[in-house]
Structures are given as structure tokens and as C-alpha cells.
């Protein structure tokens, strides 16, 4: 559960000064001394926003100001303590395992180290698909839900990290619908999975009862391809990876909310888009992910899919895209949007300008990645 003491300690010390005028003056004096010392040492920079911890932004629900909006959220950063892991931060901030690893290359996932700056990739380009019902992007390991909106109301989008089918058990592409919703489901392992487990010396029962040993978790929504489900999990550390036999898995807290909100009959569209292109404030953005293993083998390192994605969204207008930047972003595959317009800031500037947020946000339901 949320630890108020830890959270308070992580907040900007200037926020703690509201208890009294004297405390505020002391904090301001200390701030001036600190900034002066940093400036003298050459450490202070114009865009360094990481000196102060700010209120975090939720990154699971966004209101779209208009139908043209295709980039939502903002990149944030957090400074680790010795006991933190990258999966801890992923769970707290609604991210998946592979997402946070890709955003922080060179950082040990299990021992990032006290004082290490960790990038939270909480900005997204929306998939190139109809904004209706549930849209699953396999390449980004992320689900987007577009609730039906009332006339005159803005569109809302809800997003969660997911686990998907591993190689050889790929989650199918295309359109489906939700045909059934079940709380505390039982699981009847199909013959193919029972055979696979038997080859490993494991014997599965014919039916797995609801409870902590059930891999479906506490909520399941069956798709119109009835062997596939959207469901929870009893192993949340696998969210954000290819771990399933084709089903789409969510963190327990995410599937609980989605289960309550998504009606039977909702359309589900599954796409595979590792390169997503959008625009915000006049800048073109590219969100690049490592392709799925099957696609990587087929594409053999080609960036043609990235080029096609950009051309489809921009019509390759003159001066719109810096192609050298685009290739750099595609090869880096950090998994969050980066600007690729001529003269736009690079990766280091984007991260330097990102807001620093607390290790544990106030809404966190679970502090660790494996709880």
C-alpha cells in the first residue's frame, strides 16, 4: 500500500515549508545557497528540472482535446534509492517490464543504484487504428480503450501495459469483440497447454479453480475468438512481456477497472505497429519499439517499416522530418515519442527537461513490481 512517509520525503523540500513563514524563509535561503553552489560548480543548467520533485502526472487516462490529437502524456523521471528496481517503478507508474527496460538502456533492472535517474516512458503516440473500443498494439505491449463518448463530449482514452503471446503462441491480429465477462473465473487448460506442461514434467488439472493459483487472475473477458481472453494474472511481474499462450494479460488493478468499464459487445482491434508517428505543438514525433522477434527475422534490420509509417502520417512534406534523426530514434528503440522535426531537441534534452516525480506516486496501489 502507499507509504505516506516515503512519499513525503520524496517531495520537493519547498512544499514542506507550508507549515510556517519561518520554515518557508529557511527553505528559500537554502534553495538560494544550493543553486548558487551548483552554478559555481558548473553543474546547474537552464533546463535541469531534476533538482525539484514535482507532482506526478497520471498516465493511464487522457482527455483528447480534439480528434487530431495523437500524442498524449509526458516523459517523467524519478531518482532511485538503493532498494528500488525498475519493475518497482513500472508497477507504480502503470508501465510494463519491457517498456521501462527499453527506456533505460545500461541501467541494471534489479540494481539501478542509489541516485540513478530513471526515465518513465509515460508518453504515447496513439495507434493508427479506429478510436473505438479496445485497441491492442502488440509491438508496444500496450492496450488503449476508447470509451463511447456522448455527443459534444471530448474523447477519452485509457491505456494499460499488457502481456501478450510469446513466440510460437502469437496473439492474433484483427478485429474481435468481447462476448463474455467473468469474475473469479476457473481455467480449463486446453490440450495444447497440458501437453506442453507435461513435456516439462508438470501435470495440470483438468480445471484450475478460482484463486491465487489461477493464471487468469480475478477477472476475465472472453473474445469472439473464444480461445483468447483479456484477463488478469497471478504473476504480475510478467506484464509488459511476451509470456502468455496468446491471451492478453493485465495487472490485477488494471483489469479490475477495465472489467468494470468495458461492456459486452465492445470491439477489440489488435494491431502490430512498432513505429508510431504523431504531432504535437508543430513537432513531428516518432515512437519506436524493437519489432517482435518474428518481424525482426523477416525484416532483417530494414527500416522500411519506419519510413512507411512516417510517410503515411506526414506525406513526407518538405522540411517536416529530419530523416537522420528519425533513423537514430528508430535504431535506439527507446519506446517513447521523440521529436524528429528539423531543429527539434534530441534525446538528452527531452530527458533533461522532463519533470522529476516521487518514487511512489500518491495513487500507487502496489509499491513493488512482484507483489
From TrEMBL:
GO cellular component entries: extracellular region
**UniProt keyword Transit peptide present:** no
What SUPFAM superfamilies does the database record attribute to this sequence?
L,D-transpeptidase catalytic domain-like
Under Gene3D superfamilies, the record lists: L,D-transpeptidase catalytic domain-like (2.40.440.10)
Keywords, A to Z, come to:
Cell shape, Cell wall biogenesis/degradation, Glycosyltransferase, Hydrolase, Peptidoglycan synthesis, Transferase
The protein's matches in Pfam families, at most eight in alphabetical order, are given as: YkuD
Catalytic residues?
Answer: 231 (proton donor/acceptor), 247 (nucleophile)
Molecular function as annotated in GO: glycosyltransferase activity; peptidoglycan L,D-transpeptidase activity
- Work out whether the entry's keyword set contains Glycosyltransferase: yes
Q: Which GO terms describe its biological process?
A: cell wall organization; peptidoglycan-protein cross-linking; regulation of cell shape
Q: Give residue ranges for domain L,D-TPase catalytic.
A: 132-271
- InterPro entries hit by this protein: LD-transpeptidase, LD_TPept_cat_dom, LysM, Transpep_catalytic_dom
Name of the featured protein = L,D-transpeptidase ErfK/SrfK
Which organism does this sequence originate in?
Thiocapsa roseopersicina
Amino acid at each position: 500500500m502507499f507509504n505516506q512517509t516515503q512519499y513525503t520525503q520524496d517531495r520537493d523540500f519547498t512544499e514542506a515549508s507550508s507549515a510556517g513563514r519561518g520554515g518557508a524563509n529557511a527553505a528559500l535561503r537554502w534553495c538560494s545557497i544550493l543553486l548558487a553552489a551548483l552554478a559555481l560548480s558548473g553543474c546547474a543548467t537552464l533546463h535541469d528540472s531534476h533538482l525539484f520533485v514535482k507532482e506526478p502526472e497520471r498516465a493511464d487516462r487522457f482527455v483528447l482535446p480534439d480528434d487530431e490529437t495523437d500524442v498524449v502524456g509526458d516523459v517523467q523521471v524519478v531518482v532511485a534509492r538503493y532498494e528500488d528496481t525498475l519493475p518497482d517503478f513500472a508497477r507504480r507508474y502503470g508501465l510494463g517490464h519491457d517498456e521501462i527496460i527499453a527506456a533505460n538502456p545500461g541501467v541494471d533492472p534489479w540494481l539501478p543504484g542509489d541516485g540513478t535517474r530513471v526515465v518513465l516512458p509515460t508518453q504515447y503516440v496513439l495507434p493508427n487504428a479506429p478510436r473505438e473500443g479496445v485497441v491492442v498494439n502488440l509491438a508496444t505491449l500496450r492496450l488503449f480503450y476508447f470509451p463511447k463518448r456522448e455527443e459534444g463530449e471530448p474523447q477519452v482514452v485509457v491505456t494499460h501495459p499488457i502481456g501478450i503471446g510469446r513466440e510460437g503462441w502469437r496473439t492474433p491480429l484483427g478485429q474481435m469483440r468481447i462476448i463474455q465477462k467473468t469474475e473469479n473465473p476457473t481455467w480449463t487448460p486446453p490440450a495444447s497447454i497440458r501437453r506442453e506442461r507435461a513435456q516439462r514434467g508438470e501435470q495440470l488439472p483438468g480445471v484450475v479453480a478460482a484463486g491465487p493459483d489461477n493464471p487468469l487472475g480475478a477477472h476475465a473477458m472472453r473474445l469472439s475468438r473464444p480461445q483468447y481472453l483479456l484477463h488478469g494474472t497471478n504473476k504480475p511481474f510478467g506484464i509488459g512481456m511476451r509470456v502468455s499462450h496468446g491471451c492478453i494479460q493485465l495487472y490485477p488493478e488494471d483489469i479490475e477497472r477495465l472489467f468494470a468499464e468495458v461492456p459486452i459487445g465492445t470491439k477489440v482491434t489488435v494491431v502490430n505497429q512498432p513505429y508510431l508517428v504523431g504531432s504535437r505543438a508543430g513537432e513531428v514525433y516518432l515512437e519506436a519499439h524493437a519489432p517482435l522477434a518474428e518481424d525482426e527475422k523477416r525484416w532483417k534490420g530494414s527500416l522500411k517499416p519506419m519510413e512507411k509509417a512516417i510517410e503515411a502520417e506526414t506525406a513526407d512534406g518538405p522540411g517536416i522530418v529530419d530523416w537522420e534523426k528519425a533513423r537514430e530514434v528508430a535504431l535506439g528503440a527507446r519506446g517513447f515519442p521523440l521529436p524528429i522535426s528539423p531543429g527539434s531537441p534530441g534525446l538528452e534534452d527531452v530527458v533533461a527537461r522532463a519533470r522529476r516525480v516521487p518514487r511512489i506516486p500518491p495513487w500507487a496501489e502496489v509499491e513493488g513490481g512482484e507483489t
